[in-house]
């Protein structure tokens, strides 16, 4: 009997005191609810976009191009798709995209490095040293120190030629290159000297050019070194005013 009485009394006290306890602690419940909303309602959403390595392309352009927005659900974002889309741009050589599930996307970009201005029928286009077109340009002053390339269909020949040409000191004096007849190069260097190279034996022709330019009697006098028939023949044209 006593046990039953105590049990009934306990149940009665719980019924009476529970509403009081709830009302007293309602403020704490509100705080807990607000904390949960503020910290978990946006869980899984994009909070920040970090882009590294972009110099030719602005961050604003890139974010618009890949078409992702702050607040977008992370499960709707594919790093692979972003990477493939970025690689469609001529300016970008490689890209790495990763998602941090705290809501941060990191995009690391390797842009193509401008080597020269291709003067394509009066339409200047930046190209890298592998012959890849990067972008059309309107501000030539910005790239005034770059080599200028004339001619057509040189793109898959440029890297092979430059890998050979870089072995010679003349490379550092180059002002412009002219790819002629889809088969050979003319090189324009400092002091208004033109070197007409043959189709083959380019390395020995470049070596011969350096030897000629180092000879005292030809110093500052040469206008053209014609090596198109080298090693059989070599022709020199001197400047008219010297």
TrEMBL record:
Annotated ranges, domain Cell division protein FtsQ/DivIB C-terminal: 119-228
Alphabetized UniProt keyword annotations: Cell cycle, Cell division, Cell inner membrane, Cell membrane, Membrane, Transmembrane, Transmembrane helix
GO biological process: cell septum assembly
Protein name, entry field: FtsQ-type POTRA domain-containing protein
Organism: Candidatus Aquarickettsia rohweri
Residues of the POTRA domain: 46-112
Keyword Transmembrane: yes
Transmembrane segments: 5-23
